[in-house]
Structure prediction request, 350 residues.
Amino acid sequence: MKKLKQACANVKPLDAGIRRLVQKRLDSLTKPPGSLGQLEELAIRIAEIQGTESPHVRNKLVVVMAADHGVCEEGVSAYPSAVTAQMVKNFCEGGAAINVLARHASARVLVVDMGVAEKISGNGHLNYRIANGTSNFLKGAAMTEEQALQSVETGMGIADEAAQSGTDLIAGGDMGIGNTTSSSVITSLITKTPAADVVGRGTGIGNEVLEKKIRVVHEAVRLHSGWRDGMDLLCRVGGFEIGGLAGLMIGVAGQQIPIILDGFIATAAALITAEICPQTKAYMIAAHCSAEPGHELALRHLGLEPLLRWNMRLGEGTGAALVFPLMEAACRILAEMATFESAQIAGKLQ
Prediction:
């Protein structure tokens, strides 16, 4: 726990002076003030987080955390738990959506086994497995306190290694059959929203399974309503990949690297992160808002406006990878666009 407390202490407040300097630079460029809309705000946000007037996005990374969930035994998913391991293999072989979109964005993909039930053969992933999936949180805690701390500290370590290798943009992705159920419980408890308003169709479940999933989330919220703090909530109803993502976010913020939030699971992890280390919220940028109803609620609770609204609900880090080029464009506007003075163009009359 000492290591986690130190990591939270490393997350510093943003420098308001950077915002003023970058805004002044943007207003001096050869365009009407504010005419690039959200692209300008994005440039300012990246500059604030990186603590520089000259933000840059060169080395991009998507960390896909994978783990299984004991709650799947309640029949809340359209797919069997075996799909988690099968999809991890697909990630490692470069055939998943995140691989395609990361290649498009010139980003690397790092696959991490945090607790997949079936052993994953071959290379191409990091083995940090904690157990063969979590326990069913309708029958007790999803994990022990030691396992929860291990998952968070694993994510922190990955963040540190990525920063040391020169990575300046990191997004967390996820894979884990049943993880929308865990994320729904987390979101319901933190935002104080009824289960029926949070639960979505996840992997594409029909009406009968959806009703069952709502009942499971409602019961889990009742059972775990006495949660004390972020780590306790993670221990009660989280997943190993959710804990890993939370640790990744804390570590990334401490390195002054933007936290790019992907979909519902990553944003549920961000809710946990903000409970553990509230100052991380200043480092979060929401890539998109998915079709999962709980995602909108979680983003609103965090005070974040998503860059895209495309009704995606795949996870893996796909939505985050899509906005990498937007973030690079925002930085290049600041670095490469001429000013009225340098281009010898007359400015506004009034």
Remarks:
- Residues 260 and 285 are 5 Å apart (CA to CA).
- The mean pLDDT is 96.
- The first helix runs from residue 2 to 9.
